[in-house]
Amino acid sequence: MIYSSEAIVLENKDYGEADLIVTYLTKEFGILDLFAKSPRKIRSKFGSSLEPLTYSKISFIGREDKLQKIIQSDIVYPFHKIRESYKIFLKLSEIIRWIIQFSPKKEKNPELFNLMLTVLKEIENSNKHENYILFFKIRILSILGYLPDIRYCGGCGKILNGDHYYLKGFIFCSNCLSKQGIEDRGDKILDQYIIPKGVMNFLNSFLKWQLIHLERVKINEKLMNQVESFIKKHISLTVKL
Q1: Looking at residue 191, what is its pLDDT?
Q2: What is the torsional sign of CA 135, 141, 145, 146?
Q3: DSSP string, 43-76
Q4: How many CB atoms lie within 10 A of CB 115?
Q5: DSSP type of residue 220
Q6: pLDDT digits (tens, 9 = 90+) for 137-165
Q7: Using the 8-state DSSP alphabet, how is residue 159 labeled?
Q8: What is the Cα–Cα distance from 75 to 239, expressed in whole angstroms?
Q9: pLDDT of residue 4 exceeding 90
Q10: CA torsion sign, 198 to 203 to 208 to 209?
């Protein structure tokens, strides 16, 4: 049986002397690992269509319980500009790793596909790529269920007010943090757990933004770094969990 779908290349890996295993985010089938025969040869019919971030229409064959084979790959848009910027591509590569690691294989997720395609187009045509990359990170984690609840305490379930503390992948109020065996003894022990108020306020607002807002605002560099640091800390802990 022949299958077809729109697809975005996430990564490719060498397989044997001239073959590749290509990981796609597809619109119809979710994350797929597909076999590409001899694309590393000079006269390959696939050309550059298997490069990371390339948006293509693909066709493939094979049983669903086996490694399926790509038989056609036609480029819709190559996103050359993004790949040619080492800084942008490196930051997107981090998000790609999350998508591969956190997304169930062969599970259709059109919201995820549409988000990635839309954000890539915006990054390609915008000078505010930092805004779009941060937006992409936060929305990806939200869609995949890896963003911590920023409205309700992970302990008592009440709406978060006052100071907020991050521990074990959850955000706690001060009362519930003490129930975790952590108390302020005057030696700044809480500093390592507290989340800056600016970060919480930003995340609560940011999740409500539309893409059009990203062209209009300039995010303070210090705040941007604090949000990035919080996300990095959360992902590091989540992976270990």
Answers
A1: 65
A2: negative
A3: T-TTTTTTSTT-EEEEEEES-TTS-EEEEEEEEE
A4: 18
A5: -
A6: 999 999 999 999 999 999 999 999 888 89
A7: B
A8: 34
A9: yes
A10: positive
